[in-house]
Specification:
The complex is a heterodimer of chains A (about 110) and B (about 120). Chain A is mainly beta and about 110 residues long. In chain A, a hairpin with a 4-residue loop joins strand 7 and strand 8. The radius of gyration of chain A is 13 Å and the shape is globular. The mean pLDDT of chain A is about 95. In chain B, strands 2, 4, 5, 6, 9, 10 and 11 form a seven-stranded mixed sheet that branches. With about 120 residues, chain B is mainly β. The chains are: A mainly beta (about 110), B mainly beta (about 120).
């Protein structure tokens, strides 16, 4: 089976940088994905890491270390619209197994 | 590309009734997934289809649950004899098996079910 751990909540001010860590245990691993979900909304894809290292997409970056079963999502230049839940998810080809999510609250 | 759509968006039913939800995936996507999400938790995998074939069902999917994708396009999820514990958001997602897109699942807005 799969288990993922990520912090439940993070609060930061506009313009700040937030790092959301994710550790996982899994029996099958293709890669680590990150999804964003606003209240009442659908999860939306942010990034995917199959190999070790950093992937950058605009203000968001994601990192993976397969040997440490660890990844993180980095949110830079925080904006109010970034207030949402962020989920890491382990992919084993077709199936995503999600963590419980991290609620990010951005304060003015 | 209009995205993944789900119908209805909300459903209130009484315990013991049957309910059916529909999902229309992105048209060129051959994989379709159903997830369930409860408050404060991440989505939990229920089942997935590649074209019309249902290739895996989670142990979460009791025999009261059935899913179909008859022509490899839209899918339905039926819950028979609903229980209060079935109250949740039911999410549908789709993906392609081509290239890097295979790692991206596109989610619909979900159907929020409340069983009274």
């Amino acid at each position: 089976g799969q288990s993922l751990e990520q912090p439940s909540e993070v609060t930061a001010v506009e313009g700040a940088i937030v790092q959301i860590n994710c550790t996982y245990q899994t029996s099958g691993f293709y890669g680590l994905s990150w999804y964003q979900q606003h209240d009442g909304g659908a999860p939306t894809f942010l990034s995917y890491n199959a190999l070790d290292g950093l992937e950058e997409t605009g203000r968001f970056s994601s990192f993976l270390s397969r040997s440490d079963s660890y990844g993180y999502l980095l949110l830079q230049e925080l904006q109010m619209k970034d207030s949402a839940s962020y989920f890491c998810a382990v992919s084993n080809d077709y199936k995503l197994s999600f963590g419980a999510g991290t609620t990010v609250t951005v304060r003015a | 590309d209009t995205g993944v759509s789900q119908d209805p968006r909300h459903k209130i039913t009484k315990r013991g009734q049957n309910v059916t939800f529909r999902c229309d995936p992105i048209s060129e996507h051959n994989r379709l997934y159903w997830y369930r999400q409860t408050l404060g938790q991440g989505p939990e995998f229920l089942t997935y289809f590649q074209n019309e074939a249902q290739l895996e069902k989670s142990r979460l999917l009791s025999d009261r649950f059935s899913a179909e994708r008859p022509k490899g396009s839209f899918s339905t999820l039926e819950i028979q004899r609903t229980e209060q514990g079935d109250s949740a958001m039911y999410l549908c997602a789709s993906s392609s098996t081509l290239g890097l897109e295979r790692e991206t699942q596109y989610f619909g807005p979900g159907t929020r079910l409340l069983v009274l």
